[in-house]
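RECORD TYPE: inverse folding
INPUT: structure tokens
STRUCTURE:
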């Protein structure tokens, strides 16, 4: 298809070939990932209409890495159609691009224009690349095993059957799931990037400190970057982007995020989660720089304290959305939403102490932010590229840092380690 698009003499023919390539490629993804979901919903729809269909489910083994190499394959034909790259001359290089093992199971989504040009140049393995790669891998295991896997049992217990749980349990479970999904997913990405780095290849970054975003639009530019940019370039912009008026822009945003949600899995919770984020993005676009809270409040929001208020509010909205993502069904989503938004104030004495400590810590932190040196230090600390910093240390110091991570892994690893969350997507 890529070769045919490149050789086509006019744009109409190119568009026809591109459409056929996209339809055929997505048909495989649709069958393997969404067939049973479609059958279930068709049966339910006809049941409501009083028609007995009973289309049967079939046992489908989902091919390894299907979602990720499907998107990589689509990027290949799209980029040729857009004139960004030429067709790959050697099939084995194309096959390597599609099946390159580090990113195959959980990303990042690698585009043809990012990977294939690297194969045309001599691949150089350097000591700095090896150090940075090993540092990334070690940090990825730290996030996955020490943080995500130790949190996993609490999150699983919370969302296995949330009905009847008090607000404090739902809120705690939601916050912990936010930490778990980030450390689990970004941990895999770090390992993937590190494996590539060691052998002289480079994969695109997928996270850029998303939990320090000051609004939801910025958040989606920092979270799962390769998927967000893929949806933007190949769904949002082709739908019209922001070129066809405000109302159409909001519709395109919601539609793009619904598709993003559906990509994550065959379930209505993913569709609702995508729609929820699409609405948030539309609202931010609608009110951005148009609302004033008064000169005094606006001045505070422009300070380091205001920055962290924006960060906390953004994460509040995102974690609220994670309730939709993690809940098992609509009933659980509704129950968790009510408990999250309308706190029931059912606390044990130990929970009261814990809440008091958290509130006092936040208050003290915001008081300290008034100090210029402290606020500068915090901002510098969270903006420093620690992977580059650590991998740039002299060899003896670097070994010390590496052994500290290894010892922590040995000492605090849980007895069992669940698979990466994004393996299911």
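DESIGNED SEQUENCE:
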């Amino acid at each position: 298809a890529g070769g045919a698009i490149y050789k086509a003499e006019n744009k109409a023919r190119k568009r026809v070939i591109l459409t056929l390539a996209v339809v055929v490629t997505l048909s495989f993804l649709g069958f393997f990932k969404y067939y049973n979901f479609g059958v279930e919903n068709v049966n339910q729809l006809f049941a409501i209409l009083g028609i007995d269909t009973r289309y049967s489910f079939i046992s489908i083994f989902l091919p390894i890495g299907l979602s990720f190499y499907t998107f990589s394959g689509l990027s290949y034909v799209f980029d040729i159609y857009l004139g960004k790259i030429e067709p790959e001359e050697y099939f084995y290089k194309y096959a390597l691009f599609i099946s390159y093992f580090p990113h195959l199971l959980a990303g990042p989504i690698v585009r043809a224009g990012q990977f294939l040009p690297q194969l045309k140049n001599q691949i150089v393995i350097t000591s700095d690349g090896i150090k940075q790669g090993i540092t990334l891998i070690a940090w990825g295991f730290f996030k996955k095993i020490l943080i995500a896997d130790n949190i996993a049992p609490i999150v699983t217990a919370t969302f296995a059957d949330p009905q009847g749980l008090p607000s404090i349990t739902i809120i705690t479970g939601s916050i912990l799931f936010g930490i778990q999904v980030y450390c689990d997913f970004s941990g895999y990405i770090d390992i993937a990037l590190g494996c590539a780095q060691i052998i002289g290849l480079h994969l695109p970054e997928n996270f850029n400190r998303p939990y320090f975003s000051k609004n939801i639009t910025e958040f989606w530019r920092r979270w799962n970057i390769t998927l967000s940019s893929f949806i933007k370039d190949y769904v949002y912009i082709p739908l019209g982007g922001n070129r066809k008026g405000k109302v159409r822009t909001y519709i395109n945003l919601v539609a793009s995020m619904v598709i993003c949600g559906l990509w994550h899995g065959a379930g209505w919770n993913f569709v609702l989660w995508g729609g929820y984020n699409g609405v948030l993005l539309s609202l931010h676009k609608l009110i951005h720089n148009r609302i004033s809270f008064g000169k005094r409040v606006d001045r505070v929001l422009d300070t380091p304290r205001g920055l962290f208020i924006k960060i906390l509010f953004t994460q509040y909205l995102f974690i609220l959305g994670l309730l939709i993502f993690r809940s098992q069904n609509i009933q659980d989503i509704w129950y968790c939403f009510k408990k999250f938004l309308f706190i029931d104030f059912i606390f044990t004495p130990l929970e009261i102490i814990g809440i008091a400590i958290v509130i006092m810590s936040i208050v003290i932190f915001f008081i300290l932010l008034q100090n210029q040196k402290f606020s500068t230090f915090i901002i510098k600390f969270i903006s420093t590229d620690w992977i580059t910093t650590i991998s740039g240390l002299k060899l003896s110091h670097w070994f010390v840092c590496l052994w500290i991570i290894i010892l922590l892994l040995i000492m605090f690893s849980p007895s069992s380690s669940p698979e990466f969350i994004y393996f299911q997507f």
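NOTES: The CA atoms of residues 358 and 364 lie 10 Å apart.
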